[in-house]
Amino acid sequence: MPSAAFSAEDTGMIVIGQAIDLSSPNAAIGRDYVAGIKTYFDALNASGGIAGKKVRYVVRDDQATPTVAVRAVTELIERDQVDFLLGGVGDDVTQAVLNAPVFKRSNLVLFAPLVDAVELYNNRILFWRPGYVQEVQHILSHFAPLGIKDVGIVYQDGPATREAFRSLSTELRGRGLNLTGTVRLGSNEKQNAQEASRLASTKPGFVIVIADTIGTALFLKEFRKFASQTYVAGTSLINLETLREVAGARAVEWTVFSQVVSNPNAGKTAIQLEHLTMMKKYRDEPPSSLTLEGFVVAKTLTKAIQRSKRSTRAALQDLMTQDTNIELGGLSVNSSAKSNHLSGYVDIALFKKNGLIF
Questions:
Q1: Chain-centre distance for alpha carbon 286
Q2: How far lies 44's CA from each of 47, 56, 191, 279, in Å?
Q3: Is the pLDDT of residue 302 over 70?
Q4: Cα–Cα distance measured from residue 87 to residue 180, given in angstroms and rounded to the nearest whole number
């Protein structure tokens, strides 16, 4: 059984672990995120690693299940002796990891989980991406010039999404917008279809969806039967290619999604070009917003380790307590003791007949 000999403090290796969904129906998000992270670390190791230390990147499948996530994280901490722990996908698994006894006993910081619906304030978690509220505010600002006042909300039933629904409702009221109707997506497909029809009859100017990729796709398939040209908006934790495959090309027209990275298929900035080049060299899959996010997360962690004035393992603790700017190549992140979000970048992607446009 591997032991503490894997620790970066004792060897020429830095061990980075991650428990993330690789096998559920929504696992495309996790697989893309891991592909981007692995691509960066593969390129980093090929160029000598971090100060001569190679990165060992260990990934466990948490199956989008809190109990499995806790078991996987326990294994990463106790057996693999990870120096850093990257987060998985989803509010429930993230909260479960933060509450896990083995994590609480460790001195680790959970870095860069993909949490979409809730804000978690904890001194043991550091997000790379902006928060849910910031994404929603960007979406609403995108529609503000159109003068649309009537908005519908669709949310997948669950504790985190109910909290997100309350936050969104408060934001709408603060902007003087009118909530025409809501849909709570459950397991009853017939009822979901009826709710989609009812929402369409209220004639909202646009609809905001708080749901995973599959839930959003199934809603779109039904909603488009009654409202083929009503804008539908969602946040960044939607795998857009999977969405189009499940919902169909016609259903995803007139949809917009906030994005926390720039266009992954463009090479306008140094980080975009580096990501495209390394994905082509090390992976046999196309780039996506999630591969780019994984790539920049890995690069951010690497730069944090290089900047740390204490031990390797203290890099994220240092980042959380200092006001620091990290330049990534046309994209920068800022750490502050006042916030546990490094990036404030938000963009909008629009589906049109000829594909996705940023």
A1: 18
A2: 5, 11, 50, 13
A3: yes
A4: 36
- Angle between helix 28-46 and helix 270-282 axes, rounded to 10 deg: 90
Q: How far, in Å, are 77, 119, 146, 223, 335 from residue 129 at the CA level?
A: 24, 12, 27, 30, 12
What are the distances in angstroms from CA 294 to CA 39, 41, 52?
9, 10, 23
Q: Tell me 1's DSSP state.
A: -
Burial (CB < 10 A; 0-12, 13-18, 19+), residue 150, is middle
Q: What percent of the chain has pLDDT over 90?
A: 76
* Tokens at 224, concatenated: 């488009």
DSSP letter at 313 equals G
28/213 Cα distance (integer angstroms)? 9
Distance CA 144, CA 126 (A): 31
pLDDT at 347 over 70: yes
E strands, 225-331, in order: 231-234, 255-259, 324-327
